[in-house]
């Protein structure tokens, strides 16, 4: 098996999967607005977004379960938009596994191989190998309903990996598992990805899961791609207030830009970071909690009352109430002095640590 | 606080025997025991007794086995019932599949096209086919009129006529049995199969069809068993060579008064029905009929089944590719809706054709009517015979509905609150009147009522109809109770041990919709019931279906069309109301 070194950017590899202006409408509702993205060979891309943002729709369009209203799906440089589902070399892991209840575990896993007309001996060997890979060798003759949720999940993964599709799509595969099992399965999926070298497009609701697994994250909202980038890029350079809010904790101040490079907000006039401009006059400043410190900073501070203090070992999180009822979160390192409850504080930040988003 | 509340029902409960809430089912059990199980058993016993000496004897069965005619009738009955099951499945499956894939809201509306034919009286449906298929019927009038043929086609009084009538009567039952199973199949399984490399044909046959098989078998079973006891359709649409077992039983009793012989024939019919059920239970498990999950078979037979499905899939795949080549992708996509709508037309149109005929100005049932008038409705309303029969039918149906809803309601309540294995047994017993052919129940009741002096009484009719209606009320109310189980339990717990207050204050308001629906279903069951009426409503005191039957035997006339329209309208209005109540509790 080839081991593909993890690279941060999809763009540096040959594109395995390209989606061009893909769009899906159901009558009056738009499930996915025209979207484009490119996924590199062996990349792990996560679609992350709130419910109804079009993640499942995008997966269904890629594998051909749903016909696109517009746009193209290009795999390995060939336009596959018109190829029927069963002829695209794509594996899909469903949210609730979709195991065949009338087939045993072994027969479930053999199904894709049988559909490809493989020889019986090869099927038997591959099924055994794959079952070993997911540590389920002893359950081969059971029926799906005789398995636990985690075991069913692993059968679903095995059924997908057994025929070695070059692209694997997973729709919230861990959504139905408890937290501990999720974390275990995340490691398992990571390992399968490494060992198979497959290109994976993964859907989740859960930002922590997205951060833990992905090479890149595709953030979706309101049937659109909101931002596409590495976890670090999205965390450090969110492009919209939604992106800043969805990944990590943010303090967001919305306002209107003034002529002299400042943003007028409900909490005062804040200086914009160097080079930042808002084109339409409106914008928001995002300041991560770790970039806030106690004490004023010229043009970059707010004042409020401490409403909660959360001690978490290496750091202390202070939550303060601002004038209009909004809250402010700031993080203090181990050595810093912690203010008292209900104490009035002033918090400031360095101008360049803030990010201006639309 | 919560401990005190939880303790009260326990204290109230410990003095009752372990049957617990199942006591509520007792009145129903006794009723069905006396008026269903006993007469049927007695009828079977009669077949094993020498009428002269009263000693045990198998002479009757020997006579059946030794007489060609009877064996032939048996053979015909099985053949017609078997073919009816086969064709009903072939026609019903695509329709059920199409319905199952519709969006929920749309499906509810489309379902009426199956429900209305299901509940439409067999007499009305048969009458409609006589008009459509007869020598001077609609099809022949069109065919000869347009010059396609010069001789009228022989469509009636032969096996073709019987099969059309039987399949038309049974497709709705097949569809309604298939639908819940199909609705329970996760559609993503088919998608999963396709992403795994299965062509649409393979995905359908290897996954969807395989998973729908328990429904197919259940539908086949129910249609087969129901068809065994048919006599209306073969009597009017068949010839002498299509005489079925039930007709033979009727003749034996009404004309020859040969009880042992009728009992033996009924026993054979019942035995066939029970053996079919037993086979089904072995293969699939009876619980699938009530919507439970099928047991998974194992071993050789299962492997063989999967291989056969693989062949079918491969064949179907080639066929589908061919169809696509001929019709294009669009065209082949329209095939299923087209088939579904054609089936709906087959189910609905013949009955609708009766309507214009009821308003004809002619003395004959010619199509299209030469002119329109209300003559035949006036005849109907002016005839004391028809009006008395109608009033009697309404009264009997009303009383039946009250009785059956009460019994069914208490039993459903008992079963919903019981966790013992007796519950399943009682449920099966209450559904048995649906499985045992009606003619067997009717003859058994006739024998019993003859000695109780209940022949030609309203009470006799009401009792008989209540036996038949109880399965429908129980199933309807049980379904509603099931979805309220939790709230019921909570309510019972907080109200303490006062069962009556729970019932009146909580349960009944919650299941009101189900109760009304059950009442209406029972009403319809009685309103167009013929089998029991033939035996029990004696002389001039007839019911509406019995009067129709007598008239149809004598001669077809436009008054029958008017009566059919009345029956059809009454049943349809009740049905649509029942459906509305069932959906919105
Ligand atoms: N078959 C359909 N018909 C009509 N609208 C649909 C259909 N499928 C999806 N939609 C709509 O398209 C939008 C996107 O749905 P989609 O299933 O892609 O969301 P999602 O991001 O996967 O959400 P979730 O996280 O809840 O799974 C939703 O508003 C949904 O209502
Ligand atoms: Mg989804």
TrEMBL record, chain A:
UniProt GO molecular function: ATP binding; ATP hydrolysis activity; transmembrane transporter activity
Keyword Transport set for record: yes
Pfam families: ABC_tran (PF00005), TOBE_2 (PF08402)
Superkingdom of origin organism: Bacteria
PANTHER family for the chain: SPERMIDINE/PUTRESCINE IMPORT ATP-BINDING PROTEIN POTA, SPERMIDINE_PUTRESCINE IMPORT ATP-BINDING PROTEIN POTA
Gene3D superfamilies found in the cross-reference section: 2.40.50.100, P-loop containing nucleotide triphosphate hydrolases (3.40.50.300)
UniProt keyword list: ATP-binding, Nucleotide-binding, Transport
GO biological process, one term: quaternary ammonium group transport
Lineage: Bacteria, Pseudomonadati, Pseudomonadota, Alphaproteobacteria, Hyphomicrobiales
Protein name in the entry: Putative spermidine/putrescine transport system ATP-binding protein
A GO cellular component entry from the record: ATP-binding cassette (ABC) transporter complex
Family designation: Belongs to the ABC transporter superfamily.
Domain ABC transporter per the UniProt entry, residue ranges: 17-247
UniProtKB/TrEMBL annotation, chain B:
Alphabetical list of SUPFAM superfamilies matching this protein: MetI-like (SSF161098)
Record domain ABC transmembrane type-1: where: 74-280, 390-578
Topology of the protein relative to the lipid bilayer: Multi-pass membrane protein
Subcellular locations according to the entry: Cell membrane
Keyword Transport: yes
Statement: the UniProt record of this protein carries the keyword 4Fe-4S: no
UniProt xrefs under CDD domains: TM_PBP2
A Gene Ontology cellular-component term: plasma membrane
Transmembrane segments: 21-41, 80-99, 111-132, 160-182, 189-209, 215-237, 257-281, 301-322, 334-359, 394-415, 427-450, 462-481, 502-524, 559-578
InterPro entries, A to Z: MetI-like, MetI-like_sf
Biological processes, Gene Ontology terms: transmembrane transport
This protein's UniProt keywords: Cell membrane, Membrane, Transmembrane, Transmembrane helix, Transport
Record family assignment: Belongs to the binding-protein-dependent transport system permease family. CysTW subfamily.
Record-linked PANTHER family: ABC TRANSPORTER PERMEASE PROTEIN (PTHR42929:SF5), INNER MEMBRANE ABC TRANSPORTER PERMEASE PROTEIN YDCU-RELATED-RELATED (PTHR42929)
Name listed for the protein in its UniProt record: ABC-type spermidine/putrescine transport system permease subunit I
Taxonomic source organism: Bosea psychrotolerans
């Amino acid at each position: 098996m080839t081991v593909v070194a993890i690279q941060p950017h999809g763009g540096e590899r040959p594109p395995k999967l390209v989606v061009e202006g893909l769009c899906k409408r159901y009558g009056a509702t738009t499930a996915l607005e025209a979207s484009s993205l490119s996924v590199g060979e062996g990349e792990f891309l996560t679609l992350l977004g709130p419910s109804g943002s079009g993640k499942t729709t995008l997966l269904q369009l890629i594998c051909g379960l749903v016909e696109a209203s517009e746009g193209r799906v290009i795999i390995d440089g060939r336009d596959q938009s018109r190829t029927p589902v069963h002829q695209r070399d794509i594996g899909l892991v469903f949210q609730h596994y979709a195991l065949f209840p009338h087939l045993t575990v072994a027969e479930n896993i053999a199904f894709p191989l049988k559909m490809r007309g493989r020889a019986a001996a090869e099927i038997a060997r591959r099924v055994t190998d794959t079952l070993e890979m997911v540590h389920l060798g002893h359950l081969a003759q059971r029926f799906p309903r005789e398995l636990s949720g985690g075991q069913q999940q692993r059968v679903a993964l095995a059924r997908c990996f057994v025929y070695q599709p070059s692209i694997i799509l997973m729709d919230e595969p861990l959504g139905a598992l408890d937290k501990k099992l999720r974390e275990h399965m995340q490691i398992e999926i990571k390992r399968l990805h490494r060992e198979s070298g497959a290109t994976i497009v993964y859907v989740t609701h859960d930002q922590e899961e997205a951060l833990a697994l992905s090479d890149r994250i595709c953030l979706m909202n309101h049937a659109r791609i909101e931002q596409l980038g590495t976890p670090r890029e999205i965390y450090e350079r969110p492009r919209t207030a939604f992106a800043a809010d969805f990944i990590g904790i943010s303090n967001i101040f919305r306002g209107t830009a003034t002529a002299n490079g400042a943003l007028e907000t409900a909490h005062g006039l804040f200086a914009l970071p160097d080079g930042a401009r808002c084109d339409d006059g409106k914008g928001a400043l995002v300041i991560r909690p770790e970039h806030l410190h106690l004490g004023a900073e010229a043009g970059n501070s707010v004042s409020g009352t401490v409403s909660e203090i959360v001690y978490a070992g290496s750091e202390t999180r202070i939550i303060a109430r601002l004038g209009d009822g909004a809250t402010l979160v700031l993080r203090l390192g181990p050595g810093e002095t912690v203010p008292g409850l209900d104490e009035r504080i002033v918090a400031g930040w360095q101008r360049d640590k803030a990010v201006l988003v639309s | 606080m919560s401990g005190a509340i939880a303790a009260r029902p326990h204290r109230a409960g410990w003095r009752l025997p372990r049957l617990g809430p199942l006591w509520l089912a007792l009145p129903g059990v006794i009723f069905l025991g006396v008026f269903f199980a006993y007469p049927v058993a007695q009828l079977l016993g009669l077949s094993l007794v020498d009428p002269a000496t009263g000693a045990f004897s198998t002479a009757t069965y020997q006579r059946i086995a030794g007489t060609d005619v009877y064996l032939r009738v048996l053979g015909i009955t099985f053949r017609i019932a078997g073919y009816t099951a086969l064709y009903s499945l072939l026609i019903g499956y695509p329709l059920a599949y199409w319905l199952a894939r519709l969006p929920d809201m749309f499906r509810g509306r489309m379902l009426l096209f199956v429900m209305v034919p299901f509940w439409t009286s067999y007499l009305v449906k048969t009458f409609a086919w006589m008009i459509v298929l007869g020598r001077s019927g609609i099809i022949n009038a069109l065919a000869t009129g347009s010059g396609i043929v010069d001789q009228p086609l022989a469509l009636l009084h032969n096996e073709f006529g019987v099969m059309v009538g039987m399949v038309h009567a049974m497709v709705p039952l097949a569809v309604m049995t298939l639908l819940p199973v199909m609705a329970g199949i996760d559609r993503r399984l088919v998608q999963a199969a396709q992403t795994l490399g299965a062509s649409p044909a393979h995905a359908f046959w290897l996954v969807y069809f395989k998973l729908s098989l328990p429904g197919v078998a259940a539908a086949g079973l129910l249609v087969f068993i129901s068809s065994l006891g048919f006599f209306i359709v073969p009597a009017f649409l068949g010839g002498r060579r299509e005489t079925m077992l039930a007709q033979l039983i009727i003749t034996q009793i009404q004309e020859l008064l040969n009880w042992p012989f009728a009992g033996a024939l009924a026993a054979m019919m019942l035995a066939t029905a029970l053996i079919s059920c037993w086979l089904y239970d072995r293969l699939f498990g009876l619980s699938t009929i009530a919507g439970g999950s099928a047991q998974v078979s194992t071993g050789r037979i299962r492997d063989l089944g999967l291989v056969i499905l693989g062949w079918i899939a491969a064949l179907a795949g080639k066929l589908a590719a061919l169809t696509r080549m001929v019709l294009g992708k669009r065209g082949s996509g329209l095939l299923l809706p087209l088939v579904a709508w054609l089936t709906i037309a087959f189910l609905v149109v013949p009955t609708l054709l009766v309507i214009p005929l009821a308003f004809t100005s002619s003395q004959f049932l010619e199509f299209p009517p030469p002119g329109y008038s209300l003559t035949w409705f006036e005849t109907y309303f002016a005839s004391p015979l028809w009006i008395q029969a109608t009033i009697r039918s309404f009264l009997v149906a009303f009383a039946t509905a009250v009785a059956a809803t009460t019994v069914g309601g208490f039993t459903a309540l008992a079963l919903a609150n019981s966790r013992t294995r007796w519950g399943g047994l009682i449920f099966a017993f209450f559904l048995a009147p649906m499985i045992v052919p009606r003619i067997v129940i009717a003859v058994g009741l006739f024998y019993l009522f003859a000695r109780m002096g209940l022949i030609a009484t309203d009470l006799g009719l009401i009792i008989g109809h209540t036996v038949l209606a109880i399965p429908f009320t129980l199933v309807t109310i049980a379904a509603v109770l099931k979805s309220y189980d939790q709230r019921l339990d909570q309510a019972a717990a907080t109200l303490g041990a006062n069962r009556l207050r729970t019932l009146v204050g909580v349960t009944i308001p919650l299941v009101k919709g189900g109760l009304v629906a059950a009442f209406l279903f029972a009403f319809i069951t009685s309103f167009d019931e013929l089998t029991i009426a033939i035996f029990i409503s004696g002389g001039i005191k007839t019911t509406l279906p019995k009067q129709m039957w007598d008239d149809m035997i004598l001669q077809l006339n436009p008054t029958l069309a008017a009566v059919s329209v009345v029956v059809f309208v009454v049943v349809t209005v009740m049905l649509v109301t029942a459906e509305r109540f069932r959906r919105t509790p």
